[in-house]
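User: Second chain of the day. Same drill as before.
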Amino acid sequence: MSRDFESRVDEVMERIVPGCREQARGDLDMLLNAGVRSEDDLFHIVEDPSTDPALGAAALWLMTRLGLEGLTPSLFRALSQPDPGLRATAAMSIGEAGIGESTDRLVDALRNDVDREVRKAAAYALGLVGDPSAVGALLETLEDASEHPETRGMAAEALASIGDPSAVAPLVEALGDPAVEVRFWAAFALGELADEAAIPALRGAAEVDRDSVCAQGSVGSEAEDAVRRIRERRAESFSRERLGDRGEEDGLAGD
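Assistant: Same format as last time:
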């Protein structure tokens, strides 16, 4: 293994949060045991149709974090492979790489993939890519009662990342959804979108919704936090506007 490649891989491992390093180290060991010693070896793995899907997914994960040039075609091909784990990794990696021309492919995966983990990964990736043209598909997923709650919750989180105001009303509606995951992430998204019109519904959720999402907290506490964030952002916006008005007045006075 070249010293430069080894150094770059070490930097990737150092950036991983401690709780996820054990799995990442396992993936790296799998790649090393398969003979990976360079960037070219990683490309060879993902382009070889006989590669074990788990090994291919590990290679895509590392290639994305190394920021390798020419990765996009490999990710797009992996998104259509038979193995759902490989497709899910490809979708997440596309989002993490911020590939702007990926929206149509990710939307297709969100709407049509037979595996819910792939659909969930596609929603996650669309939030990272941030293309407003994906809002319609994400809203469809959010409102689809037949979809798994985790995927619908991920769609709500993605809508928060994109920041399109057209999502506010559907997210307010989602605060009354039967699934706790959907209600929790709808509350989070409304806090991020910072529209004061959502405050009454959020206050209502804060008062009565004690159901919790594992490792995240209750819907009520998230709704209460969302109200706080909306008010803080509105106060900051008001302050900036006041400062701008004063600047204009000062400029007129100077004239």
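Residues 219-254 form the longest helix (36 residues).

User: Great, on to the next one.
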